Amino acid sequence: MCLAIPSKIVRIDRDTCMGEIDTMGVTREANFSLVDDEITVGDWVLVHVGLAISRIDADEAQKTLAMYREIIELQDGALNAGG
Amino acid sequence: MQAADILLQMVRSNDAIRAFAEHIKIEAAQLKKPLRIMEVCGGHTHAILQYGLDQLLPGTIKLVHGPGCPVCVLPQHRIDAAINLAQRPDTILVTLGDMIRVPGSRGVSLQQTRATGADVRYLYSPLDCLAIAADNPQKTVIYVAIGFETTTPMTALLLEQAHSRQLDNLLVHSNHVLVPQAMELILAAGGAVDAFIAPGHVSVMAGAKQYHILAEKYHAPVVVSGFEPVDLLDAVLRIIHQVNTGMATVDNAYSRFVKTTGNRKAQQLVDKYFEPHDDFLWRGIGRIPGSALKLRSAYGERDAEVQCPESCPAPTEEQRGNCLCGSILMGLAQPTDCPLFAGGCTPQNPQGSCMVSNEGACAAYYKYRRDW
Question: What is the pLDDT of residue A66?
Answer without folding.
Answer: 95
